[in-house]
């Protein structure tokens, strides 16, 4: 990518571009299920007054974040695998990397999962004052804080990339744009980019993981003080979906970090699979986990399916 050239090339299956179409249909189905799952969650929460509670408001934020991440990555991933069209303008690549990093930060590194851990702590520690402590105004302020923090930390990334000149290959490692991936192609000094990335990780990921750990230590301490074993298990069961959401996000993130850092000897296909899992699997699994582990949502989905089945029989 010579100085002044304004195009990157995204890739699908490294060295096997002729087989990209094999991945196209599974990825399309995956994205369709992601959209269906998250939109269903939002619809159920919006149309059921009984679900207008703090836990479900935070779940709505998580679903919106997952939809945003889906819409940010879907166009380039499907164009690469389905149409073998991997060329993307520099400004388009920068815009995509901003939204990917910001939405991932909003979901985990800067807020929603942290807010949901706090929500579970309040619900278990002080259930009688749960709704008053987490009123609609408080949730709105938390939501604004989550958005602001996520976008503020990612705001410098486009400018840090834009100032660089590129004189190496213009081929990126994935079918979407990431700051660290584009940075490696620069022939200019990238120490500022590396330093800011490290600061952002320390102020978001490490801090928020610590907050989540402390929240669950306090939750466990509270649960163990409950005399009734049945009530103890019931309280812990309310945290299962949230713990699953944490694992669904952080396990792929740790996996792709380890593969990039220590897996240079691995097949490029492994890197490709980890990259797609990193951005595509969490938004897909979150609505399914909450549908299975949350009785209220599960019951609403069953009611919708039963109603459609009944109407189908009636029409025949």
UniProtKB/TrEMBL annotation:
<feature type="transmembrane region" description="Helical">
    <location>
        <begin position="194"/>
        <end position="219"/>
    </location>
</feature>
<feature type="transmembrane region" description="Helical">
    <location>
        <begin position="240"/>
        <end position="263"/>
    </location>
</feature>
<comment type="similarity">
    <text>Belongs to the G-protein coupled receptor 1 family.</text>
</comment>
<keyword id="KW-0472">Membrane</keyword>
<feature type="transmembrane region" description="Helical">
    <location>
        <begin position="57"/>
        <end position="78"/>
    </location>
</feature>
<feature type="transmembrane region" description="Helical">
    <location>
        <begin position="138"/>
        <end position="161"/>
    </location>
</feature>
<keyword id="KW-0812">Transmembrane</keyword>
<keyword id="KW-0297">G-protein coupled receptor</keyword>
<dbReference type="Pfam" id="PF13853">
    <property type="entry name" value="7tm_4"/>
</dbReference>
<dbReference type="InterPro" id="IPR017452">
    <property type="entry name" value="GPCR_Rhodpsn_7TM"/>
</dbReference>
<dbReference type="GO" id="GO:0005886">
    <property type="term" value="C:plasma membrane"/>
</dbReference>
<keyword id="KW-0552">Olfaction</keyword>
<dbReference type="GO" id="GO:0004984">
    <property type="term" value="F:olfactory receptor activity"/>
</dbReference>
<dbReference type="InterPro" id="IPR050402">
    <property type="entry name" value="OR51/52/56-like"/>
</dbReference>
<dbReference type="InterPro" id="IPR000276">
    <property type="entry name" value="GPCR_Rhodpsn"/>
</dbReference>
<protein>
    <recommendedName>
        <fullName>Olfactory receptor</fullName>
    </recommendedName>
</protein>
<keyword id="KW-0675">Receptor</keyword>
<keyword id="KW-1003">Cell membrane</keyword>
<keyword id="KW-0716">Sensory transduction</keyword>
<feature type="transmembrane region" description="Helical">
    <location>
        <begin position="22"/>
        <end position="45"/>
    </location>
</feature>
<dbReference type="InterPro" id="IPR000725">
    <property type="entry name" value="Olfact_rcpt"/>
</dbReference>
<dbReference type="GO" id="GO:0004930">
    <property type="term" value="F:G protein-coupled receptor activity"/>
</dbReference>
<keyword id="KW-0807">Transducer</keyword>
<keyword id="KW-1133">Transmembrane helix</keyword>
<feature type="transmembrane region" description="Helical">
    <location>
        <begin position="269"/>
        <end position="290"/>
    </location>
</feature>
<dbReference type="GO" id="GO:0071396">
    <property type="term" value="P:cellular response to lipid"/>
</dbReference>
<feature type="domain" description="G-protein coupled receptors family 1 profile">
    <location>
        <begin position="37"/>
        <end position="290"/>
    </location>
</feature>
<feature type="transmembrane region" description="Helical">
    <location>
        <begin position="98"/>
        <end position="118"/>
    </location>
</feature>
